[in-house]
Specification:
The chain has 81 residues and is of the alpha+beta class. Helices cover 30% and strands 15% of the residues.
């Protein structure tokens, strides 16, 4: 089966492409992109290339505070690369 090519816009505004299997998850795309030198350079800029992670950010609904269980489900957001 041919790989799935996933276009991904990173925070710098650069467009990168990840080749993943057809059943890949978002984490698989992140893992594939994190191995590419171009992506690492775009994400890190002139920062040292060690101990960095991608973190998912989620906004609460307006006027609704976070529930303790919701916060526990999010975990610490770290996905070591």
């Amino acid at each position: 089966m041919a790989p799935l090519i996933v276009p991904t816009l990173i925070p710098s505004g650069a467009l990168h492409f990840a080749a993943v299997r057809q059943s890949a998850t978002a984490q698989d795309v992140i893992d594939a992109l994190s191995t590419l030198d171009d992506v690492r350079g775009d994400v890190l800029g002139d920062l040292e290339d060690s101990e960095w992670a991608v973190q998912r950010i989620r906004r609460p609904q307006p006027g609704k505070p976070w529930e303790e269980e919701e916060l526990k489900q999010l975990g610490n957001g770290n996905h070591a690369l």
